[in-house]
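Colleagues,

For the teaching module next term, I've prepared a clean inverse folding example: a structure given as tokens, and then the sequence designed for it. I'd like students to try predicting residues themselves before seeing the answer, so please don't circulate the second half yet.
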């Protein structure tokens, strides 16, 4: 049913903050990304410490799984800001596994297999993008130059 001619349809008043709901969701997404990046960064630093200090045990095994399955992938995929959580999670795992397999294959091909060196190199390479993502500012603000 359409409104009579010469009148406009009634619209409910907007209860959203100025800037619309997209801005609120983007800020929430940025905060979530920062928190995830901080957690992944902490796991990365702990793994680097565990490998440099030659610590062994169950914690290092869990950190090793995080290194193989999450850390390199999130440091690459997180920068893309795909805004699709399922796609980001899937790509994070796939990219992590691919990076680790490529590194391992290169070391095997060069007859220079050293798993601890690969772990330490991956941890060091992943730190800068994770720090960048952890310090990300809310949408609409620029990073200081």
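(Answer key — instructors only)
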């Amino acid at each position: 049913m359409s409104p009579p001619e010469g009148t406009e349809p009634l619209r409910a008043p907007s209860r959203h903050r100025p800037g619309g709901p997209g801005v609120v969701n983007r800020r929430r997404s940025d905060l979530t990304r920062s928190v995830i990046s901080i957690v992944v960064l902490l796991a990365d630093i702990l793994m680097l410490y565990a490998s440099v200090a030659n610590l062994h045990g169950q914690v290092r095994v869990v950190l090793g799984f995080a290194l193989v399955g999450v850390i390199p992938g999130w440091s690459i995929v997180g920068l893309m800001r795909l805004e699709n959580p399922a796609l980001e999670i899937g790509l994070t795992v796939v990219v992590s596994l691919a990076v680790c397999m490529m590194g391992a294959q290169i070391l095997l091909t060069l007859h220079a297999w050293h798993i601890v060196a690969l772990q330490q190199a991956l941890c060091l390479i992943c730190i800068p993008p994770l720090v960048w993502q952890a310090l990300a500012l809310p949408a609409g603000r620029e990073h200081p130059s």
